[in-house]
Design brief:
The complex is a heterodimer of chains A (about 270) and B (about 280). With about 270 residues, chain A is mostly helical. Chain A is built from 13 helices and no strands. Chain A has a single domain, classed as MetI-like fold (Orthogonal Bundle), CATH 1.10.3720. Helix content of chain A is about 75%, strand content about 0%. Chain A is globular, with a radius of gyration of 23 Å. Chain B is built from 13 helices and two strands. Chain B has a two-stranded antiparallel ribbon. The longest helix of chain B is centred in the first third of the chain and has 32 residues. The radius of gyration of chain B is 23 Å and the shape is globular. The N and C termini of chain B lie far apart (about 50 Å). Chains A and B meet through helix 1, helix 3, helix 4, helix 5 and helix 10 of A and helix 1, helix 3, helix 4, helix 5 and helix 7 of B. Chain A: It is found in: Cell membrane. Chain A: It comes from Spirosoma pollinicola. Chain A: It is a multi-pass membrane protein.
Chain lengths: ~270, ~280
């Protein structure tokens, strides 16, 4: 009995330590600067002024649209390219297939630190600096997505494909109209992992985007936070951070279980 | 199906691999032998970049900072994640609520978490120091003390990531057959013995995964120190990626920056291989 009680006390303490800081953040962003160091759950001296300041100083609305555009389009491309390659690796027989598979595994273990600078130079050479292309194309294909698709396609019966071929369907129709509806959980997993990664990515945009009107949210908030424009006002920085967190937290509230399952499956991959 | 159809289907990968993996890897090796500010033509300088790197105190400091980060982050991560997973294991009421709560920091951007913790760790108005003051313990300069700052960031990173590792450990714990514990109970084993001789060996693969994943994420550390401390105080939180970034985009030393990236990647691969050897033998 005492043990069970202790268990719950510890669990509740832990849960509070993970949730409370976020609640504090929202209430601090709605507090006047003097109320910032208080520990309360409700704003002290309620005011919207931090948000007003953020939006007058940086184009956060534009950054939100940029982030959404880039994350949604890129996720779509990752799904399409991943399904195509994953299907070929899982269900088709061709010379060099195993070779490509090992190449993908190798790519996944390669530290990004080695390709960071050369990839930036590629962007400069292609004239993609300060364009959406620099944010989209390098991320339009993901090795993890290919491997997850491959695994899912392998679990589907060959008869499904043979029947479709008899009906005269081409490979693209087989993949996207016949097989994909059978592996929606995998599609959801890849969508969540990719979207989340893109939405939160700060380093690459910092490297390839200088023009404020092309910046993504994490990049803009990072620069705002380290630059002088927040003028040391913590409340304003926190308001910017809340705006950055809200979209993904809302998605998380809707797809909680899927988020957890997706992340766990990606972690267990290696 | 035409004969070339499979190749058409895998062509996006081949193209992407050629442009964003194979070419940059080869080009990064070429760059390490050159001095280049990206505007004027590349200049061949032989091994000068490597010589510079071996004498570059700041690079080795950045590597050492990352190692110090990992030495605190990894054991703490495993310890906290294992405790929370143990607490959650064996059907607790509200388990899904607790899991969801622990997972919340995992899904938000490191940028958000860092701005939040900047306030929590602030010397004058931070919540942590206010709690210490309330308990009449002297305040700590979490981010301004060179001996402490990196460990503060390591604790913050643990808070951010631990939810994911709780889930991984839960999966691992649930795969241990109950019969093992029942048999141990018959033998009169203590809880510690059961943990040490049944649970730990059974979840060894998960521990390995956690070690490797947190090593890789630790070596990628960038945005946290960039926002929190800009590498200070006295470069004690300068991470390797930050240093690569600085060399490339503050000083436009593309050749040297590529050399840093190349050598740092080799260090990462070396560490991961060592971990594989060591952790797989353990327990």
């Amino acid at each position: 009995m005492a043990q069970t009680a202790l268990k719950y006390v510890l669990l509740i303490l832990a849960a509070v330590s993970f949730i409370y800081p976020f609640i504090w953040m929202v209430s601090a962003s709605l507090s006047s600067e003097s109320g910032l160091s208080s520990l309360t759950l409700l704003p002290v001296g309620f005011t919207w002024s931090n948000y007003v300041t953020v939006f007058t100083k940086i184009p956060l609305d534009r950054a939100f649209l940029n982030s959404s555009f880039v994350a949604i389009l890129t996720t779509g491309l990752v799904l399409i390219s991943g399904a195509m390659v994953g299907y070929a690796l899982a269900k088709l027989d061709f010379v060099g297939r195993d070779w490509i598979f090992y190449l993908i595994i190798f790519t996944m273990t390669l530290p990004f630190q080695i390709t960071l600078i050369p990839n930036y130079i590629t962007m400069v050479r292609l004239g993609w600096v300060d364009t959406y292309l620099a944010l989209i194309v390098p991320f339009a294909l993901s090795s993890l997505s290919i491997l997850l698709f491959r695994q899912a396609f392998q679990s589907l019966p060959q008869a499904l494909i043979d029947a479709a071929r008899l009906d005269g369907a081409n490979e693209m129709r087989i993949i996207f109209q016949i097989l994909i509806p059978n592996i929606l959980p995998t599609v959801l997993t890849i969508t969540i992992l990719t979207f989340m990664g893109l939405w939160n990515e700060a380093l690459w945009p910092l490297i390839v985007i200088r023009d404020e009107s092309r910046m993504t949210m994490p990049q803009l908030v990072t620069l705002f936070s380290v630059g002088g424009r927040a003028e040391g006002q913590l409340g304003v920085k926190i308001a910017a951070a809340v705006m950055l967190a809200i979209p993904i937290v809302i998605l998380y509230l809707f797809f909680q279980k899927h988020f957890i399952r997706s992340m766990a499956s990606s972690g267990l991959k290696d | 199906m035409k004969k070339w159809t499979p190749y058409l289907l895998v062509s996006p990968y081949i193209l992407h691999f050629a442009v964003f993996v194979a070419f940059p890897v080869v080009f990064s090796v070429v760059l390490t032998f050159h001095s280049w500010n990206i505007i004027s033509p590349m200049q061949y300088i032989g091994l000068a970049n490597y010589e510079h790197l071996f004498k570059d105190r700041l690079f080795w400091q950045a590597v050492w900072n990352t190692v110090r980060f990992l030495l605190v982050h990894i054991p703490l991560q495993i310890f906290v994640a294992l405790i929370l997973a143990e607490l959650l294991n064996r059907t607790v009421r509200g388990a899904s609520f607790f899991r969801a709560a622990f997972f919340l920091p995992v899904i938000v951007s490191g940028v958000v978490v860092t701005i939040l913790w900047q306030q929590l760790l602030s010397y004058n108005s931070g919540i942590l120091n206010r709690l210490l003051t309330a308990m009449s313990v002297p305040r700590v300069a979490w981010l301004d003390d060179p001996a402490v700052a990196m460990y503060s960031i390591a604790v913050m990173a643990t808070w951010k990531n631990v939810g994911l590792y709780v889930i991984l450990f839960l999966v691992g714990l649930q795969s241990v057959p109950m019969q093992y514990y029942e048999a141990a109970d018959l033998e009169g084993a203590t809880n510690w013995q059961k943990f040490r001789f049944i649970t730990l060996p059974m979840i060894n693969p998960t521990i390995f995964t956690v070690v490797v994943l947190s090593t890789i994420s630790g070596f990628s550390l960038f945005v946290e120190p960039y926002i929190m401390t800009q590498g200070g105080p006295m470069n004690t939180t300068l991470s390797a990626v930050m240093y690569i970034y600085r060399q490339a985009f503050q000083f436009y030393h593309m050749g040297y920056s590529a050399t840093l990236g190349f050598c740092f990647a080799l260090i990462i691969l070396f560490v991961v291989v060592i971990q594989r050897r060591y952790v797989e033998q353990e327990v």
